[in-house]
Write a structure and sequence with these properties.
Radius of gyration: 35 Å
Distance between the termini: 107 Å
Order of helices and strands: HHEEEHHHHEEHHHEEEEE
Strand content: 15-25%
Shape: flat
Strand order of the largest sheet: 9-8-7-2-1-10
Length: 353
Protein backbone atom coordinates (compact mmCIF):
# COMPACT_ATOMS: atom_id res chain seq x y z
CA UNK A 1 0.00 0.00 0.00
CA UNK A 2 2.82 2.29 0.87
CA UNK A 3 4.57 1.36 -2.34
CA UNK A 4 1.50 2.32 -4.39
CA UNK A 5 1.33 5.75 -2.79
CA UNK A 6 4.94 6.36 -3.54
CA UNK A 7 4.44 5.42 -7.21
CA UNK A 8 1.48 7.84 -7.58
CA UNK A 9 3.41 10.62 -5.90
CA UNK A 10 6.41 10.08 -8.16
CA UNK A 11 4.12 10.10 -11.22
CA UNK A 12 2.49 13.40 -10.19
CA UNK A 13 5.84 15.02 -9.58
CA UNK A 14 7.08 13.92 -12.97
CA UNK A 15 3.95 15.30 -14.70
CA UNK A 16 3.87 18.76 -13.05
CA UNK A 17 6.92 20.24 -14.85
CA UNK A 18 5.32 19.48 -18.24
CA UNK A 19 1.98 20.92 -17.11
CA UNK A 20 3.63 24.06 -15.72
CA UNK A 21 5.55 24.52 -18.94
CA UNK A 22 2.39 24.40 -21.06
CA UNK A 23 0.67 26.94 -18.80
CA UNK A 24 3.63 29.29 -19.03
CA UNK A 25 3.63 28.99 -22.81
CA UNK A 26 -0.07 29.81 -23.06
CA UNK A 27 0.36 32.82 -20.75
CA UNK A 28 3.24 34.10 -22.89
CA UNK A 29 1.19 33.66 -26.05
CA UNK A 30 -1.70 35.64 -24.52
CA UNK A 31 0.68 38.42 -23.54
CA UNK A 32 2.08 38.57 -27.09
CA UNK A 33 -1.44 38.63 -28.54
CA UNK A 34 -2.43 41.42 -26.17
CA UNK A 35 0.68 43.43 -27.11
CA UNK A 36 -0.09 42.93 -30.81
CA UNK A 37 -3.67 44.10 -30.26
CA UNK A 38 -2.52 47.19 -28.36
CA UNK A 39 -0.02 47.96 -31.13
CA UNK A 40 -2.69 47.66 -33.81
CA UNK A 41 -5.12 49.85 -31.87
CA UNK A 42 -2.42 52.43 -31.20
CA UNK A 43 -1.39 52.49 -34.86
CA UNK A 44 -5.02 53.06 -35.84
CA UNK A 45 -5.52 55.82 -33.26
CA UNK A 46 -2.39 57.80 -34.11
CA UNK A 47 -3.66 59.29 -37.43
CA UNK A 48 -7.04 60.10 -35.84
CA UNK A 49 -5.29 61.76 -32.93
CA UNK A 50 -3.16 63.81 -35.32
CA UNK A 51 -6.29 64.82 -37.21
CA UNK A 52 -7.99 65.86 -33.97
CA UNK A 53 -4.96 67.92 -32.98
CA UNK A 54 -4.91 69.58 -36.41
CA UNK A 55 -8.63 70.35 -36.23
CA UNK A 56 -8.28 71.78 -32.74
CA UNK A 57 -5.35 73.96 -33.82
CA UNK A 58 -7.21 75.11 -36.92
CA UNK A 59 -10.33 75.94 -34.91
CA UNK A 60 -8.35 77.92 -32.34
CA UNK A 61 -6.52 79.82 -35.08
CA UNK A 62 -9.81 80.59 -36.86
CA UNK A 63 -11.35 81.83 -33.63
CA UNK A 64 -8.33 83.99 -32.92
CA UNK A 65 -8.47 85.37 -36.46
CA UNK A 66 -12.18 86.09 -36.08
CA UNK A 67 -11.52 87.94 -32.81
CA UNK A 68 -8.92 90.08 -34.59
CA UNK A 69 -11.46 90.72 -37.38
CA UNK A 70 -13.92 92.04 -34.78
CA UNK A 71 -11.16 94.39 -33.62
CA UNK A 72 -10.68 95.52 -37.23
CA UNK A 73 -14.42 96.20 -37.43
CA UNK A 74 -14.20 98.35 -34.29
CA UNK A 75 -11.27 100.25 -35.84
CA UNK A 76 -13.34 100.95 -38.98
CA UNK A 77 -16.28 102.12 -36.87
CA UNK A 78 -13.99 104.60 -35.16
CA UNK A 79 -13.03 106.02 -38.57
CA UNK A 80 -16.71 106.46 -39.45
CA UNK A 81 -17.39 108.16 -36.12
CA UNK A 82 -14.52 110.57 -36.72
CA UNK A 83 -15.81 111.25 -40.22
CA UNK A 84 -19.22 112.16 -38.79
CA UNK A 85 -17.63 114.41 -36.16
CA UNK A 86 -15.59 116.21 -38.85
CA UNK A 87 -18.76 116.75 -40.91
CA UNK A 88 -20.57 118.15 -37.90
CA UNK A 89 -17.69 120.49 -37.18
CA UNK A 90 -17.73 121.77 -40.77
CA UNK A 91 -21.52 122.03 -40.77
CA UNK A 92 -21.87 119.95 -43.97
CA UNK A 93 -23.04 116.35 -43.62
CA UNK A 94 -21.61 115.00 -46.86
CA UNK A 95 -20.04 111.64 -47.66
CA UNK A 96 -17.86 111.51 -50.75
CA UNK A 97 -15.15 109.37 -52.33
CA UNK A 98 -12.35 111.75 -51.35
CA UNK A 99 -12.85 111.11 -47.63
CA UNK A 100 -10.48 108.92 -45.63
CA UNK A 101 -12.88 106.01 -45.25
CA UNK A 102 -13.38 105.74 -49.03
CA UNK A 103 -9.87 106.52 -50.30
CA UNK A 104 -7.76 103.48 -49.44
CA UNK A 105 -7.69 100.21 -47.61
CA UNK A 106 -5.65 100.02 -44.40
CA UNK A 107 -3.08 97.49 -43.22
CA UNK A 108 -2.70 97.04 -39.48
CA UNK A 109 0.00 94.89 -37.86
CA UNK A 110 -1.20 92.98 -34.80
CA UNK A 111 1.54 92.60 -32.22
CA UNK A 112 2.02 90.28 -29.26
CA UNK A 113 4.01 91.41 -26.22
CA UNK A 114 4.39 88.04 -24.51
CA UNK A 115 7.36 87.98 -22.16
CA UNK A 116 8.12 91.58 -23.09
CA UNK A 117 9.10 90.66 -26.66
CA UNK A 118 6.94 92.53 -29.19
CA UNK A 119 6.40 90.64 -32.43
CA UNK A 120 3.84 90.75 -35.23
CA UNK A 121 1.53 87.74 -35.01
CA UNK A 122 -1.10 88.77 -37.55
CA UNK A 123 -1.89 91.30 -40.27
CA UNK A 124 -5.31 92.94 -40.58
CA UNK A 125 -6.43 94.43 -43.91
CA UNK A 126 -9.48 96.71 -43.71
CA UNK A 127 -11.64 98.43 -46.32
CA UNK A 128 -14.82 100.48 -45.87
CA UNK A 129 -17.34 100.42 -48.71
CA UNK A 130 -20.23 102.84 -48.71
CA UNK A 131 -23.55 101.32 -49.74
CA UNK A 132 -25.25 104.68 -50.24
CA UNK A 133 -24.11 105.02 -53.85
CA UNK A 134 -26.12 101.99 -54.96
CA UNK A 135 -29.76 101.20 -55.64
CA UNK A 136 -31.38 99.33 -52.79
CA UNK A 137 -33.19 96.41 -54.41
CA UNK A 138 -35.72 96.37 -51.57
CA UNK A 139 -36.85 99.86 -52.59
CA UNK A 140 -38.54 98.20 -55.56
CA UNK A 141 -41.40 96.93 -53.38
CA UNK A 142 -41.33 98.75 -50.02
CA UNK A 143 -43.46 96.84 -47.56
CA UNK A 144 -43.74 93.90 -49.95
CA UNK A 145 -46.97 95.05 -51.58
CA UNK A 146 -46.84 98.15 -53.80
CA UNK A 147 -44.19 98.71 -56.46
CA UNK A 148 -42.27 101.99 -56.24
CA UNK A 149 -42.37 103.45 -59.78
CA UNK A 150 -39.29 105.66 -59.34
CA UNK A 151 -37.05 102.79 -58.25
CA UNK A 152 -38.53 100.53 -60.91
CA UNK A 153 -37.67 103.01 -63.66
CA UNK A 154 -34.16 103.51 -62.30
CA UNK A 155 -33.44 99.79 -62.13
CA UNK A 156 -34.83 99.30 -65.63
CA UNK A 157 -32.64 102.15 -66.92
CA UNK A 158 -29.60 100.69 -65.14
CA UNK A 159 -30.15 97.29 -66.76
CA UNK A 160 -30.34 99.00 -70.13
CA UNK A 161 -27.15 101.00 -69.47
CA UNK A 162 -25.33 97.80 -68.50
CA UNK A 163 -26.72 96.05 -71.60
CA UNK A 164 -28.31 93.30 -69.50
CA UNK A 165 -31.07 91.85 -71.67
CA UNK A 166 -31.54 88.36 -70.26
CA UNK A 167 -34.12 89.43 -67.70
CA UNK A 168 -36.24 92.42 -66.76
CA UNK A 169 -36.87 94.36 -63.58
CA UNK A 170 -40.25 92.57 -63.28
CA UNK A 171 -38.43 89.37 -62.25
CA UNK A 172 -36.86 91.28 -59.35
CA UNK A 173 -40.25 92.63 -58.32
CA UNK A 174 -41.81 89.16 -58.32
CA UNK A 175 -38.95 87.89 -56.18
CA UNK A 176 -39.78 90.48 -53.50
CA UNK A 177 -43.55 90.95 -53.56
CA UNK A 178 -45.65 88.80 -51.27
CA UNK A 179 -48.10 87.50 -53.88
CA UNK A 180 -47.67 84.60 -56.29
CA UNK A 181 -48.83 86.35 -59.45
CA UNK A 182 -46.32 87.62 -62.00
CA UNK A 183 -46.49 91.35 -62.63
CA UNK A 184 -46.02 90.82 -66.37
CA UNK A 185 -44.89 88.28 -68.94
CA UNK A 186 -41.32 89.19 -67.97
CA UNK A 187 -41.85 88.30 -64.30
CA UNK A 188 -41.14 85.00 -62.56
CA UNK A 189 -42.85 83.23 -59.68
CA UNK A 190 -42.86 79.69 -58.27
CA UNK A 191 -43.98 78.18 -61.57
CA UNK A 192 -40.65 79.04 -63.21
CA UNK A 193 -38.46 78.19 -60.24
CA UNK A 194 -40.06 74.84 -59.36
CA UNK A 195 -39.04 73.35 -62.70
CA UNK A 196 -35.39 74.21 -62.09
CA UNK A 197 -32.80 71.61 -61.00
CA UNK A 198 -32.77 71.69 -58.05
CA UNK A 199 -36.23 73.18 -57.62
CA UNK A 200 -36.83 76.17 -55.33
CA UNK A 201 -39.41 78.89 -54.77
CA UNK A 202 -39.46 82.66 -55.15
CA UNK A 203 -38.51 84.40 -51.90
CA UNK A 204 -41.66 86.59 -51.77
CA UNK A 205 -39.86 88.77 -49.25
CA UNK A 206 -37.16 91.48 -49.32
CA UNK A 207 -33.65 90.57 -50.40
CA UNK A 208 -31.43 89.61 -47.47
CA UNK A 209 -28.31 89.56 -49.66
CA UNK A 210 -27.43 90.68 -53.17
CA UNK A 211 -26.20 87.12 -53.76
CA UNK A 212 -29.86 86.18 -54.20
CA UNK A 213 -29.62 87.83 -57.61
CA UNK A 214 -27.95 84.66 -58.88
CA UNK A 215 -31.27 82.83 -58.29
CA UNK A 216 -33.39 85.20 -60.38
CA UNK A 217 -34.92 83.76 -63.55
CA UNK A 218 -32.78 84.71 -66.55
CA UNK A 219 -29.77 85.86 -64.50
CA UNK A 220 -26.37 84.85 -65.89
CA UNK A 221 -22.97 84.98 -64.24
CA UNK A 222 -21.93 87.79 -66.58
CA UNK A 223 -25.05 89.82 -65.80
CA UNK A 224 -24.65 89.19 -62.06
CA UNK A 225 -21.06 90.46 -62.06
CA UNK A 226 -22.03 93.52 -64.09
CA UNK A 227 -24.90 94.43 -61.77
CA UNK A 228 -23.15 93.76 -58.45
CA UNK A 229 -21.26 97.09 -58.04
CA UNK A 230 -24.43 99.13 -58.56
CA UNK A 231 -26.98 97.51 -56.23
CA UNK A 232 -27.32 96.53 -52.59
CA UNK A 233 -29.81 94.82 -50.30
CA UNK A 234 -30.52 96.93 -47.22
CA UNK A 235 -32.88 95.85 -44.41
CA UNK A 236 -34.89 99.07 -44.78
CA UNK A 237 -36.31 101.04 -47.66
CA UNK A 238 -35.94 104.74 -48.36
CA UNK A 239 -32.22 105.09 -47.58
CA UNK A 240 -31.74 106.81 -50.94
CA UNK A 241 -28.87 107.03 -53.44
CA UNK A 242 -25.85 109.13 -52.48
CA UNK A 243 -25.05 111.11 -55.62
CA UNK A 244 -21.54 111.78 -54.29
CA UNK A 245 -20.59 108.08 -54.38
CA UNK A 246 -22.87 106.63 -57.08
CA UNK A 247 -21.21 104.90 -60.02
CA UNK A 248 -21.04 106.49 -63.46
CA UNK A 249 -23.58 104.00 -64.83
CA UNK A 250 -25.99 104.74 -62.01
CA UNK A 251 -25.67 108.50 -62.53
CA UNK A 252 -26.42 107.99 -66.21
CA UNK A 253 -29.46 105.84 -65.43
CA UNK A 254 -31.10 108.76 -63.60
CA UNK A 255 -31.75 110.43 -66.97
CA UNK A 256 -32.42 108.28 -70.03
CA UNK A 257 -31.16 110.88 -72.51
CA UNK A 258 -27.85 111.44 -70.73
CA UNK A 259 -24.85 110.47 -72.86
CA UNK A 260 -21.77 108.67 -71.45
CA UNK A 261 -19.78 111.88 -71.98
CA UNK A 262 -22.28 113.85 -69.90
CA UNK A 263 -22.20 111.23 -67.14
CA UNK A 264 -18.40 111.41 -67.05
CA UNK A 265 -18.64 115.22 -66.87
CA UNK A 266 -20.85 114.91 -63.77
CA UNK A 267 -18.31 112.58 -62.18
CA UNK A 268 -15.46 115.02 -62.91
CA UNK A 269 -17.36 117.93 -61.33
CA UNK A 270 -18.09 115.77 -58.30
CA UNK A 271 -14.40 114.92 -57.96
CA UNK A 272 -13.49 118.62 -57.96
CA UNK A 273 -16.06 119.46 -55.31
CA UNK A 274 -18.60 117.04 -53.80
CA UNK A 275 -22.22 118.11 -53.95
CA UNK A 276 -23.31 119.62 -50.64
CA UNK A 277 -27.02 119.40 -51.46
CA UNK A 278 -29.19 117.39 -53.85
CA UNK A 279 -30.42 120.66 -55.35
CA UNK A 280 -26.84 121.52 -56.31
CA UNK A 281 -26.63 118.17 -58.09
CA UNK A 282 -29.95 118.67 -59.91
CA UNK A 283 -28.89 122.16 -61.05
CA UNK A 284 -26.13 120.74 -63.24
CA UNK A 285 -26.57 121.56 -66.95
CA UNK A 286 -26.38 117.84 -67.75
CA UNK A 287 -29.82 117.41 -66.14
CA UNK A 288 -31.43 120.44 -67.76
CA UNK A 289 -34.91 119.56 -68.98
CA UNK A 290 -34.72 116.05 -67.52
CA UNK A 291 -37.53 116.52 -65.03
CA UNK A 292 -35.40 114.68 -62.47
CA UNK A 293 -36.55 115.29 -58.90
CA UNK A 294 -34.85 114.82 -55.55
CA UNK A 295 -36.94 111.71 -54.76
CA UNK A 296 -34.66 108.97 -53.49
CA UNK A 297 -31.50 111.07 -53.77
CA UNK A 298 -29.18 112.29 -51.00
CA UNK A 299 -25.60 113.50 -50.43
CA UNK A 300 -24.61 111.27 -47.50
CA UNK A 301 -24.47 107.59 -46.62
CA UNK A 302 -26.00 105.68 -43.73
CA UNK A 303 -25.02 102.09 -44.55
CA UNK A 304 -21.49 100.76 -44.94
CA UNK A 305 -19.70 97.46 -45.36
CA UNK A 306 -16.53 96.92 -43.35
CA UNK A 307 -14.40 94.36 -45.18
CA UNK A 308 -11.67 92.67 -43.12
CA UNK A 309 -9.08 90.10 -44.14
CA UNK A 310 -6.96 88.70 -41.31
CA UNK A 311 -3.81 86.67 -41.89
CA UNK A 312 -2.97 84.72 -38.73
CA UNK A 313 -0.89 81.58 -38.23
CA UNK A 314 -0.72 81.00 -42.02
CA UNK A 315 -4.52 81.12 -42.18
CA UNK A 316 -6.84 83.74 -43.63
CA UNK A 317 -10.11 84.85 -42.01
CA UNK A 318 -12.54 87.03 -43.99
CA UNK A 319 -15.28 89.12 -42.43
CA UNK A 320 -17.75 91.51 -44.08
CA UNK A 321 -19.82 93.51 -41.61
CA UNK A 322 -22.83 95.62 -42.59
CA UNK A 323 -22.89 98.75 -40.43
CA UNK A 324 -25.57 101.42 -40.01
CA UNK A 325 -24.77 104.99 -38.96
CA UNK A 326 -27.83 106.86 -37.74
CA UNK A 327 -28.39 110.65 -38.02
CA UNK A 328 -26.76 111.10 -34.61
CA UNK A 329 -23.56 109.38 -35.74
CA UNK A 330 -24.15 106.22 -33.68
CA UNK A 331 -23.09 102.98 -35.33
CA UNK A 332 -24.64 99.52 -35.15
CA UNK A 333 -23.53 96.28 -36.79
CA UNK A 334 -26.50 94.69 -38.55
CA UNK A 335 -24.96 91.46 -39.84
CA UNK A 336 -21.64 89.70 -40.36
CA UNK A 337 -20.60 87.37 -43.16
CA UNK A 338 -17.46 85.20 -43.18
CA UNK A 339 -18.09 83.67 -46.60
CA UNK A 340 -17.02 86.52 -48.90
CA UNK A 341 -13.48 86.54 -50.30
CA UNK A 342 -11.37 88.87 -52.46
CA UNK A 343 -13.37 91.93 -51.44
CA UNK A 344 -10.42 94.24 -50.70
CA UNK A 345 -9.63 96.09 -53.93
CA UNK A 346 -8.19 99.50 -53.01
CA UNK A 347 -4.57 100.54 -52.72
CA UNK A 348 -3.40 99.69 -49.18
CA UNK A 349 -1.96 102.19 -46.72
CA UNK A 350 -0.02 101.04 -43.66
CA UNK A 351 -1.33 102.28 -40.32
CA UNK A 352 1.16 102.33 -37.43
CA UNK A 353 0.19 100.91 -34.04
Amino acid sequence: MADRREVVQVARQSAYPALNGRQNGIALLMVLLAMALVTLVGAGMAPKQELRIFRAGHYLAQQQGYSIALGAEAFAKRILVRDFEDDQESGVLVDSLDEIWASNSAILPVESTDEGDARVIAVAEIQIDGLGGRINLNDLVPGGETVDPVTRDRVAALLERLQINGFRVDALIDWIDSNEQTVSAYGAEDGQYLIAEPAYRAANQPFTSVSELSLIEGMTEEAYRALLPHVTALPVSGAGINVNTATTELIASLYNEMTPAQANAVIEKRAEKPFETVQEFLALPEFAGSGLTSTGLRVNTRFFEVVSRITYDNRVVNLVSTVHRNPDGELQTLRRDTGQKNRITREPVSVPE
